[in-house]
Design goal:
GO terms for molecular function: water channel activity. It is a multi-pass membrane protein. With 234 residues, the chain is mostly helical. It has a single domain (6-223), classed as Glycerol uptake facilitator protein (Up-down Bundle), CATH 1.20.1080.10. It has helices at residues 6-34, 39-61, 70-78, 84-108, 124-146, 153-167, 176-182, 196-217. Helix 2 runs antiparallel to helix 6. It is globular.
């Protein structure tokens, strides 16, 4: 994929993250309206839509770039597969795309473009959940690629996130760009701005632990220069 420019990669990351956030927030709003008296059903609807859209987006955009997550991009940087400038550009695109996705989701459901969330998510058990969710995501992504199952990574990621909505108390944000975006919608999927910094820290810690675990489990594969997390194998 040597013809894939940084501009195209950044565009793919922005578009993919935007659609991901629109699906997370939009399905949360729809679930709240369709099942107003059943929080468990709301979460089921929200998780299934998120997992499904992840599969679709990764399959569609991975030939260009399909991390949709600053943590995954930074893991790619930690393995030396992208340089610092490239990683910074992709992360900026992910955050920008996520913000646009949140605004679009709000507007699609006839809400103000931006409403800061009032949902407090500040508690040690939630921070631990974000560490676990992010570590697991890194392990799933890298494990699929290192094991030669690149064609399955979309399904693995979609399945993992769907499950992590339920087995983590934080409902598995596991993504700084999505966390920022969810701050901009005072709906089912929202997070209060005051809760965001601790979620960021937990996600970074989870990503770092994921890198350490992957280096231990796949010591030879992590040094391969031809294996990228965000693009098809070359």
């Amino acid at each position: 994929m040597s013809d894939v420019t940084l501009g195209r990669r950044a565009a793919a990351e922005a578009v993919g993250t935007g659609f991901l956030v629109a699906a997370v927030i939009g399905s949360g709003i729809a679930a709240s309206r369709l099942s107003p008296d059943d929080t468990g059903l709301q979460l089921l609807e929200n998780s299934l839509v998120t997992g499904a859209v992840l599969v679709a987006l990764v399959l569609a955009l991975r030939p260009v770039s399909a991390a949709f997550n600053p943590v995954i991009t930074l893991v790619d940087r930690a393995f030396g597969h992208v340089d610092t400038a490239t990683a910074a550009t992709l992360v900026a695109a992910q955050v920008a795309g996520g913000v646009v996705g949140a605004v679009v989701a709000n507007l699609m459901f006839d809400l103000p473009a931006v409403t800061l969330s009032a949902t407090d998510r500040s508690a040690p058990h939630l921070w631990l959940a974000e560490v676990v969710a992010t570590l697991g995501l890194v392990l799933v992504v890298v494990g699929c690629l290192r094991g030669g199952h690149a064609s399955s990574v979309a399904f693995a990621v979609g399945g993992y996130i769907t499950a992590a909505y339920w087995f983590t108390s934080s409902t598995s944000f596991a993504n700084p760009a999505v966390t920022v975006a969810r701050m901009l919608s005072d709906t089912f999927a929202g997070i209060a701005p005051s809760s965001v910094p601790a979620f960021f820290l937990a996600q970074v810690v989870g990503g770092a632990l994921g890198v350490a675990l992957v280096r231990y489990l796949f010591p030879a594969a992590t040094r391969r220069p031809d294996v990228h997390l965000t693009q098809e194998l070359r």
